[in-house]
Amino acid sequence: MALISNVEPHRMADAIRFLAMDACERVGEGHPGTPLGAAEIATALFTRHLKFNPADPLWFDRDRFVLSAGHGSMLLYALLHLSGYAGMPMEALRTFRELGSPCEGHPEYHPERGIEATTGPLGQGIANAAGMAVAEAFLAEQLGADLVDHRSYAIVGDGCLQEGVAQEVASLAGHLRLGKLTWLWDDNQMTDDGAIGIAQSEDLPARFRAANWQVLEVDGHDVAAVDAALSLARHDARPSFIACRTVIGRGLPGVEGTRAAHSGKLTRALTDAARQARDWPHPPFTVPEDVAAAWRVAGRRSLPDYEAWQARVAGLPGETRQHLDRLREGRLPDGWQDGLRAFARQAAEQGLAQHGWKTCGEIVEIAAAAIPEMLAGAPDLEAATQHKRRLSAFTAGHRGGRYLHYGVREHAMGSMLNGMAAHGGVVPSGVTYLVFSDYERPAFRLAAMMGLPVLFAFTHDSIGIGRNGPTHQPVEYLASLRAIPNLLVFRPADAVEAAECWELAIAHRTGPSCLVFARQSQPMVRRMAEENLSTRGAYVVAEAEGGERVATILATGTEVALALRAREMLASEGLPVSVVSMPCWEIFEQQTRAYRAQVLGQAPRVAVEAAVRLGWDRWIGPEGSFVGMSGFGASGGEDDLWQHFGITAEAVAAAVRQQVGRHG
Amino acid sequence: MALISNVEPHRMADAIRFLAMDACERVGEGHPGTPLGAAEIATALFTRHLKFNPADPLWFDRDRFVLSAGHGSMLLYALLHLSGYAGMPMEALRTFRELGSPCEGHPEYHPERGIEATTGPLGQGIANAAGMAVAEAFLAEQLGADLVDHRSYAIVGDGCLQEGVAQEVASLAGHLRLGKLTWLWDDNQMTDDGAIGIAQSEDLPARFRAANWQVLEVDGHDVAAVDAALSLARHDARPSFIACRTVIGRGLPGVEGTRAAHSGKLTRALTDAARQARDWPHPPFTVPEDVAAAWRVAGRRSLPDYEAWQARVAGLPGETRQHLDRLREGRLPDGWQDGLRAFARQAAEQGLAQHGWKTCGEIVEIAAAAIPEMLAGAPDLEAATQHKRRLSAFTAGHRGGRYLHYGVREHAMGSMLNGMAAHGGVVPSGVTYLVFSDYERPAFRLAAMMGLPVLFAFTHDSIGIGRNGPTHQPVEYLASLRAIPNLLVFRPADAVEAAECWELAIAHRTGPSCLVFARQSQPMVRRMAEENLSTRGAYVVAEAEGGERVATILATGTEVALALRAREMLASEGLPVSVVSMPCWEIFEQQTRAYRAQVLGQAPRVAVEAAVRLGWDRWIGPEGSFVGMSGFGASGGEDDLWQHFGITAEAVAAAVRQQVGRHG
């Protein structure tokens, strides 16, 4: 592609370089190594390839760019400023790393400012980019290339690539032939500990070739060379890995190429020396007008594409236009809940008691039928989670598929789901055994931090799984998920609550949800489905009969049925007891104090959950009893295990009797 | 190597095959695919290469074998039974998957029975094996090849290799040239979802060559071919990856080679057909005497090596012998605590207030000086965690190094530490930022389940890290770690508690510990170090002055100092308040009820911890106050953040005043 102005590209790159230096120097910290070393890579991408419009940062058909090496955040802020994003004025760059600044230590998801993903924890960003490429391919199939035809790029460091999640994604992206995905490797041969050779001697280009990527190797300080490689990337059906050999901290005399360049403190003397060495006689936070103008021109480079796209959209038939608008605004189709509600009603009528995973799978199938943008998947647990069912597979050859086979790559799944949600237009969900959720946990945190509506489903939620043993029996997972802020954790009791919770989770658009199901049969505890009772997080599922309640049993999941059996046993002894189902603590916590008090009651409380106690004291108080797990599970038949660990209706009833005796 | 008997190897493999079939058929579940498909691989390994002595399963210089594809557990049980392990009689095989059986659904760590690691969560076992190979190389350097010269093997499936942790370990093991590590890939082209091609098209041999492994490709049903490859593996300085092409469920007519072989239910008709097809006319759980005898002979194959080793040990000079005995019994050297205690005393005298990570690093250095078998390391955070200091690096060329550069591979580190601990003779520790602990979390769970004494250290434990922002600020981690059973979570307040907690953690030999430190300065709260007060998990660090306590403030980490400042402010107002430091909840929970009551007191309570509330209700009760985080952090200066999130002495004092007002 021809140069877009007569400003030399190296000066455009230097504009990034000095803004990054000035910002790091001003605050006295930050990571200059990446912005300085990758300035030419970024210049080639942003001025010659990336399709975007700073005046409309949310343009649906824009290319997506993720700075996976998030510690180099000033690279991104400088790029966005220079390209003309209104949300990133020079004043913002001057406040780098100050509380309240848009220029945070690591990039925080804010697409209106051009920040497509929160990055920093290494490997996540490149997985996000792969998720975005999946979303693009999926939507291009649904909407046509006239409306969806864009690429996903990531700048990645050695650290990103060492992470297992990146290796999982590399393998899967090659398999899926995500031809619109390009990773630009900032191959600076340096890590925090020093020369890369301290911990790595792998032939990364060969590793990517083995995974069916196009691999290109260039001088990362040669804008024209990176430009040429990016052009080749655009014309290959495989994802492209562009190895860009660079010098870390390039431009800092005496520091560039050394370990100190990674995150060493910049002094004024050093930045002055850099200015002299690179003939950049401009004061801090000042870009000479010719360079600034060249960047502004580059920032408007995609305007013809943008306007042509808008014209195509304007010319769309009404229905297609509405569909597109719905997707880009993230609105769900009208009546999407109908199927779920019908399922709940029918389940209530029939008394549908069946395996939790089966219920979950049926619901996903119903939801997917109503929501064409829903893209489900699992890491090699199609049968055991029943989530594929009649959905066809999303593959290299069939982009219309609605189910992604991730292979045994939980972490890739989680982080790619985040990328799909950040891309927009897709309702991403993924399911695995609850016990494997630890493998994808870093993704939950970032989804919660970004406020992305990702649906993380889990089956096999307790010792109820039986003979596979303690490695496969979650005990600490409910607590550890409940600890994550801005994450809804649902554990429905039966098929009715299952449909209710899925509806709540899908409707929740400002953060992720975890939906947790049993392997074993989930007996019915609700025979009414007129109202979504899960909406309040917890509710009295069975009032005390024969008098005022003398105790309250709190439970979730299949243990609600067990609580109800205990209640019956106690009722026959003349002890009226209420049972509260608590499918979602986080929602219950948001209810009024009055409602919570009414549900929890004044009587002594006993909680039952086949998991650890941590967190339950919030609801049962210091004198309450807890029936659950105090250690890991065991291998054995399901019934044997419930008995062995004392999680039975009898044990709950005994705990209630003790409570009543103590207080009575 | 010559055949050890005139029994054909395929019949020896069939003994495994039918025992696995019979056990799965009897219980009506299990995963026959791996034991049937890998029977020849395992036969080649166990009868011709593996160095072990079933009569002395804990022989220190035995080869280690890990069945990473743990779902194929019957392969291991059959091998151990046939090889003559007393802990694995035929009766045990008949109880496969019954509660209390030694033949659990997945192998559970039990070295006395020959089970070297708990496996099942995929990828973990092969990482464990790599950790074992590191331990071997490390100890061989310390003790000499006369005493330590053994190999580590793992049988791995496609699922294992798809996991990111395996990819991290592959890269690192090649880099470290762990020549005594061999992975036998059961390349059966089939996963739970069906043909491997559904989710994978990577050229795995090329991938391993890129990572500097020796790669060998053989017919996995040809015992002689596998044998030959294993011989080549023993004569290469690189780790070896033996790709064994197999047929899943081999031996089940109509099922072998299909998806159903993975974990499909076996019927008697099917096992009868298999018996007929393979000319195995023996009843279930019966091995013909010639085959059983051949296996017994093979199980005694290493006796000459064993006896020669014992003779060498018997001839050792006293001091070397004592050193060896100490290591193999897992005893720490006499007086190992002295340096830590001296550090604590000196810190108390000097009022040593310094960065938490610096304290942690200094303590590790002191501990490492006293414990020669301690092997530290970090994933590319040498400088930021200060854990290397004067330790030299363990590398391909220097096995005497005491510090391992893991690269940015947290998960590999965690799982390899488990392998080192399971190997024995090594005190493994690894450190990273607390926020990256999620990446290695699956390893914590398995360390806790196995009861391995692994030291997981963390720095940068809260918003106190400042400007790196919310991605780097843990808020939910303390709760999520406290949720894991059999794991001690230490968060010391100052340098004295730091030394105390490290001493407790190192002394704790029946499970792992997490040790959590601040990035920011940790002010001194203890000026006395005569007694290890952390031994009780929590204690009154400052009694109320000027009267009976009207409130109790509970805190951990740097927030103890903040609580003490609040206490002073309140004292000046005439409110006597006690402060309790709680460096380890789990230990405090184990104290007598009387002690706990005495520490917690009867007065209203306020807790302060720069983390989420989950779990604190246990200690503060339903009326207690909590000062901490309710969401994610932010990027900004440290002081700004404490103010912004209201975690200050003033806020704690205000909470106490409110409590006292409510109750007073």
| Number of domain modules of chain A | 3
The outline of chain A comes out as elongated
- Which blocks of ≥5 consecutive residues of chain A have pLDDT under 50? none
- Which CATH C-level class of the largest domain in chain A is it? Alpha Beta
Count of helical segments of chain A? 28
Head-to-tail CA distance between termini of chain A: 85 Å
Report the count of strand segments of chain A: 20
Write the CATH fold name of the largest domain in chain A: Rossmann fold
Instruction: Based on the coordinates given, report the CATH architecture of the largest domain in chain A.
Output: 3-Layer(aba) Sandwich
List the helices and strands and how they pair.
Two copies of one chain form a homodimer.
Chain A: H1 9-27, H2 33-37, H3 39-48, E1 64-67, H4 73-83, H5 90-94, H6 124-143, E2 152-156, H7 158-162, H8 164-176, E3 181-187, E4 190-191, E5 194-195, H9 204-210, E6 214-219, H10 223-233, E7 240-245, H11 260-263, H12 268-277, H13 289-299, H14 303-314, H15 318-329, H16 338-350, E8 354-355, H17 356-370, E9 374-378, H18 382-385, E10 403-405, H19 410-423, E11 427-433, H20 437-450, E12 455-459, H21 477-482, E13 488-490, H22 495-507, E14 513-516, E15 521-522, E16 539-542, E17 551-555, H23 559-572, E18 577-581, H24 585-589, H25 593-600, E19 605-608, H26 617-620, E20 625-627, H27 638-644, H28 649-663
Parallel strand pairs in A: 1-2, 2-3, 3-7, 6-7, 9-10, 9-11, 11-12, 12-14, 13-14, 17-18, 17-19, 19-20
Antiparallel strand pairs in A: 4-5, 8-15, 16-18
